[in-house]
Design goal:
Layout (H helix, E strand, L loop, with lengths): L1 H21 L7 H15 L5 H4 L7 H10 L12 H15 L3 H6 L1
Length: 107
Amino acid sequence: FKESLDWIREQGANLTNVALLESTFEELRPRHFATGMLCHGLVAAHLLPLDMIRPSGRQTGERWTCVFSQGSDCPDIECNLPAEAQECVFEYLKLATDATTGVLQQD
């Protein structure tokens, strides 16, 4: 798991550089940006399914997958964990970020 988190940190640093060049500070509130980057990394590392962090009512699953894949170095975003483990990772994510499911989906 540590190797995955290290990979997420490295990928997040690259994505952060791009995001900071194209956004204003007001658009990227630090807490929301950090949790968004962590969620992105967990999906890209195949530790969470994309639908688990997709904002409800926003886009269809297919459209959301397309948008995510275009901005990711990892177009294959299938989660490698069984459903029970996915739920555990998501619960740990909520605990670590002190965020609800709704907040994580917004970020």
